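Usage

Read records sequentially. Each one opens with the input sequence:
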Amino acid sequence: MVEADIAVLAEGVNLLWILVVSFLIFFMHAGFAMLESGQVRSKNVANQLTKNLLTWALGVFAFFFVGAAVSGATAALTTGGSATELYASTINGESGAWVNWLFGAVFAMTAATIVSGAVAGRAKLRAYVGYTLVLAAVIYPFVSGLGWGGWLESFGFHDFAGGMIVHGLGGVAGLTAAWVLGPRMGRYNDDGSVNVIPGHSMTFAVLGTLILAFGWYGFNVGTAVNVFAVTDSGIALEGFAYVGRVALATTLGMALGAIGASIASLYLTSKVDTLYVANGLLAGLVGVTGIADIVTWYGAMIIALVSGLQLPFVFKFVEQNLKIDDVCAVFPVHGTAGMIGLIMIALPGMAVSGSGVTMVSQVVGVGVITIWTVVATAAVFGAFKAAGQARVSPEHERDGLDVSEHGVDTYPEFGSPDVAADGGVEEIRTDGGEVEDGSSSELRTDGGEVEDETPIKMITAIVRPDRLSNVKQQLAEVGAPSLTVTNVSGRGSQPAKKGQWRGEEYTVDLHQKVKIETVVADVPVDEVVEAIREGANTGEPGDGKIFVMPVNDATQVRTGKTGPDAVWGN
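and closes with the structure output:
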């Protein structure tokens, strides 16, 4: 194979590798969307999803036209290059340059989307979008230019895949933005005590975490950018010479981060909090992100463990001492964890021999990035706040940002498939008769044949959701007519319980139930009541109540029939 062919082969493999890992990093946005939407109230889910979509759309636009040039210019200017680098553009580039641009863009968008989780539930969309444009065009590119190829790197600062340049920046920016905006309504009492505002879906939060962890392999392993290098003697491994170390550190990082957060949660609350475990897994990943290429295997474990351990304590400090409402805990997950990893790598034994990292260079790098991010973020959100455009009105915040900012309802139907059991058996015919060959196996809905006109009664039952299927079956067997089922919450004799959200307890005195309403005119009321009681009974407090009320009249919409005929009529 001639030298030219070898060079083409190496370039093709390297470009393919960069594209694959860029796609993996892009997929992390699905994880961010799920993680963040799971940690907000149901009335704010669409707003959170919209912010994630626009972060990518507008951020990529800004990074293409401005950000990439600012990053390159910063690197050049801070290392003695020409100011004309400021006017460099990717617009007139070529295919290979655009692949490298995409790789930089997905990193920039990761930093941007982190901020949305901190300001959830009260930031105006225009303020968040405006900040995203500035971050993608200036704030992040300035930091990436300093840290990768610029003054900080020449000073000795080591940040392999963006533990501070990407994640630390996002975490600090999120904390600063949340501070400028102020906490959500009801988050703090007049005496400063904290009220817990649980998110609406732990399932979303955990699945989002796992998607992020999967994409993180692209984030970290992908930073070993070039697979091959062309040498005088042929072809050799370049970035892949140390890619195994990166993959191992990434895997150990997520594991030990989750373990560390579990230990801290157990210490603080006597329970292993699910959300702390998920957040700790991410904190462990952030902790090793900036050092994965030079950290020893045991160093990765120690740093990730510390990153997970610190998370609950830092979150509580931010919440209770600083009084900053960081909704998705972006500062302890991305901010402090990124700082810890980059600083701890300078401790004896953490890095492989010959790494060259020093405590001074790492602390200076972390400090410069933190100060720049705080000042720039406070300036942008402060300007929006001064113009009265940073935060939604109290009325809109109470109603939810889904309706006020987007005019949509994420969950327009009240109910869920898990309580929509069929409740029937094959032996029950739709007409109430005996089973014959070829008969239907559906539940009867007409209540059977009319024998005597009886007063109309409304029977309402409040029962456990998991007993609905049994109740429906029992009602079908006694020939009860159609049902209306509604998801409700309430309290009766069932004692209140303690819930936990990210390690903080709150009282659960409104229990999830289903309300069953059935109107009868031909079926004995006592049989219907007994059928519901038999189907709903577990023998434990909280089984529910059954109420019987007279109905003055009824009218069938389609036929205009009234009275009992409206109840059993076809």
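Summary fields computed downstream for this record:
- The CA atoms of residues 79 and 167 lie 24 Å apart.
- The longest strand covers residues 511-520.
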